[in-house]
Design a protein that fits this description.
306 residues, alpha/beta, Outer Surface Protein A, domain 3, Rossmann fold, 5-stranded parallel β-sheet
Length: 306
């Protein structure tokens, strides 16, 4: 009893809010919470109370406000609401990481160097192209304005409509694509960019950029730009380790391109049950954004990015 009273006093002045990601599923009249330490199933009235608490805690609330809002939903007074089961439920949810103490509002993410930085994202036909929308969103959160160019094979793997929805701009797919805003797309994008990011860079696209083959839009942008060019190789380990690919990567480094080291990933060309971790996959979006932010910050400071 003393423990419960102490808990009630402790949380009375704390604002609790639902965690950004929770693992909770409803089924009929039951709700299952997969928490950090336990899996709990709530049924009937307990499940209804749980859902009500989570709805109210979608924004930061204190204990007094929580009890008052629950009372309003039940068309009764706060004094008539049984506080003990609610305190017990909240304590469980805090322990399971479903409710967390609300901190101060997060400050806006500073742009690398101030103001929106201009990034051309060139997407080639490696399977990691399916992750490009997530990378694009993280670049935007990091303070970048992003324009997108696709190779022909990339357009088979990622939706042009999805990318246009994220950027609110046309997605470029061809050297011959006509638009009054960019009559010669590869030159327009190359001159606009403060950084060109090729993610993922397939073995074919690496070869085109290394040899100056401008038959493809993404490679032509890389050839025409004076901005830093960052390539993120993505392929299976055999291709990545092949003499031809390694020679092209050496050429890119010699030409001053930035070559991102690969991560461990699973080759989707293999059957799902036969996949194992191998070197050659593109790193996760967050890691690529960290590299981009560093390079843009160095460029804004006037120092050589590296």
């Amino acid at each position: 009893m003393h423990r419960r009273a102490a808990y009630a006093r402790r949380v009375a002045d704390e604002l609790l809010v639902r965690a950004p990601v929770v693992r909770i599923v409803d089924h009929g009249a039951s709700t299952t919470v997969i928490g950090a330490t336990a899996v709990r199933r709530f049924d009937g009235d307990s499940a209804a109370l749980l859902r009500a608490v989570l709805e109210i805690c979608a924004r930061p609330v204190g204990r007094t406000r929580l009890l008052a809002e629950l009372a309003a939903r039940a068309a009764t007074t706060a004094a008539a609401v049984p506080a003990q089961p609610i305190d017990e439920l909240v304590e469980l949810l805090v322990g399971d990481g479903v409710l967390v103490v609300a901190g101060p509002p997060a400050p806006p993410v500073p742009s690398p160097g101030g103001g929106l930085r201009r990034v051309v994202l060139g997407i080639s036909g490696a399977v990691a192209a399916v992750d490009a929308p997530a990378l694009l969103r993280e670049l935007q959160v990091a303070g970048c304005e992003v324009r997108v160019a696709l190779t022909r094979n990339a357009a088979r793997l990622v939706s042009r409509a999805a990318l246009e929805a994220l950027t609110h701009r046309a997605v470029w797919t061809s050297l011959w694509q006509r638009d009054g805003r960019a009559v010669v797309p590869h030159v327009e994008l190359a001159e606009w960019a403060e950084l060109v990011l090729v993610y993922p860079a397939s073995a074919t696209t690496l070869s085109r950029i290394a040899t100056g083959d401008c038959s493809d839009l993404v490679a032509a942008i890389a050839a025409a730009t004076r901005a830093p060019v960052v390539v993120v190789p993505s392929m299976n380990d055999a291709m990545y380790g092949s003499p031809a690919v390694q020679a092209n990567l050496a050429v890119l480094r010699d030409h001053g391109r930035y070559v991102v080291h690969p991560a461990l990933g699973r080759e989707v060309a293999h059957r799902p049950e036969a996949r194992s971790a191998m070197l050659g996959a593109a790193p996760p979006a967050g890691a690529v954004v960290d590299i981009v932010r560093h390079l843009l910050r160095e460029r804004a400071a006037g120092a050589p990015a590296g």
